[in-house]
Structures are given as C-alpha cells and as structure tokens.
Amino acid sequence: MSRFGNVKNNQGFIENLKALKESHIQPQKNIELDISPIINTFIEWGTNNKLSNKRLTRKFCWLFAVCGIMRISDIHRIEETITRLSLERLLFTVVAAKERRQGYAINKAIEISFHDNEIFCPIKAYLEYKSRIATGTPFIRNLTDFTKAVTTDTISNHIKEITKLASNDNHHKRIKGRAVGVTLAARAGISTDDIVTLGNWLSQDIFDNHYRLTRATSSN
C-alpha cells in the first residue's frame, strides 16, 4: 500500500477532512430580487375565481411558500382537518414537519394573515383552492385527478413556475420560495432574530448562508 493510501485511511485525516468540508464558508449571495413581474402577472391574471386550476395551484403554492416561509415538504404536509380560520388570520398545522425535537418529528403550527388586496392574499387563494380543488389530506392535489395527491417535486415545480417570472436570469430557477419570503422580510425591516424564529432555524448563519438572497434593505 502506498504512503498516500495510508494517509487516506488514517482516521485522523478522515475526521479533519470532514471538519474542513463542514466549516467551508459559503460565498455571500447577492441576487437582485425584483418580484414586480410576479406582482404584475398576478394583477394580469385577475381574481382567483377567474384562474385556471393550474394557475390557481401555482399561485397558492408560491404565496404560501413566500408568506408562510414554508418548505416544500411543509406545503405537502398541511393537515386541512385541523386548520382554523379567523377574521384576521389562518392557522394551520404541518404534520411531521422536517424539523425534529429530541429526534422526533414535530407538528408545526404556521400562521398567515390576510392581505388587503384579494389578488395578493394567500388566504383568499387558499379558500378558492380549497373550494375548487382540495379534497382532503394531503392538501395539494393532482390537477387531472383531484382524488390523487402529488409529490413534493410537483409542488416545487409549481413554485418555480412563478419564481422564474421574476427574472430571465437562470439564477431564479433555483431560488426557493422560502428564500424569497425571508429576503423580502429582511428588506422590509423585520429583525434577523424574528426571521430566524419564523424560519425555525438554529442560527443566523443558516439564514445568511442558505436563504438570504441579498443584504439590500428598503423602507417600502
């Protein structure tokens, strides 16, 4: 066996290499995020009751990912039977969310508020989707057969079809709806601590290195 082979098989070498990989600093992203084309598209589409099933589904998934700072797997696991709607907000539960506590999957409560404009309101999109398409749990259904559920890949594609409207830059094809949500929240002046809490992340580093698209802020 070569001397190099001995080094490769040395446990200390293996552990040090693993540590180096895990401590690799992610390059700071600075993607120009302009969602005005998405806003204009939603305006052009009109009210929810005028949307095709495909457009309604894509819009609903995107709004929930952005406004609820939700993973694709969260949207896939919405438990409709215990959803609660009030005059001000929608409270729903994600069953067996990706987050774990003491090694066990948790049920995660998420709250979304109404928007003054029906066209941009995630709850209005939810209500239209529920009345027209959703037949139970899982909440997101196959568009050709509402009795069938869809995979997380399908939900991801629904969200991507909206997100890519933001730019012709290929970067946007890889942007997560959740990343759009937290970036817009930061841009609006919401504190990093609050965003980390909403995202249910263990540290600010996760937000900065994996979800925050730009450090630009705005008072608008």
Structure commentary:
Helix 4 crosses helix 6, helix 4 packs across helix 7 and helix 4 packs across helix 8. This protein has a single domain, classed as Orthogonal Bundle (hpI Integrase, Chain A), CATH 1.10.443.10. With 220 residues, the chain is mainly α. It has a 3-stranded antiparallel β-sheet with strand order 1-2-5. It contains 10 helices and 5 strands. The N terminus and C terminus are likely disordered. The chain is globular. InterPro entries: Integrase-like_cat_sf. One of its GO terms (biological process) is DNA integration. GO terms for molecular function: DNA binding.
Number of helices: 10
Order of helices and strands: HHHHHEEEEEHHHHH
Total domain count: 1
Regarding CATH, which class? Answer: Mainly Alpha
Major pleated sheet: 3 strands, antiparallel
Pairing-aware structural class of the strands and helices?
mainly alpha
Query: What sort of overall outline do the alpha carbons produce when their principal axes are compared?
Result: globular
Please name the CATH architecture. Answer: Orthogonal Bundle
CATH homologous superfamily heading: Intergrase catalytic core
At the fold tier of CATH, the topology name is: hpI Integrase, Chain A
**Could you estimate the helical fraction of the residues in percent?**
40-55%
Distance between the termini: 65 Å
Protein name: Tyr recombinase domain-containing protein
InterPro entries: Integrase-like_cat_sf
GO molecular function: DNA binding
GO biological process, one term: DNA recombination
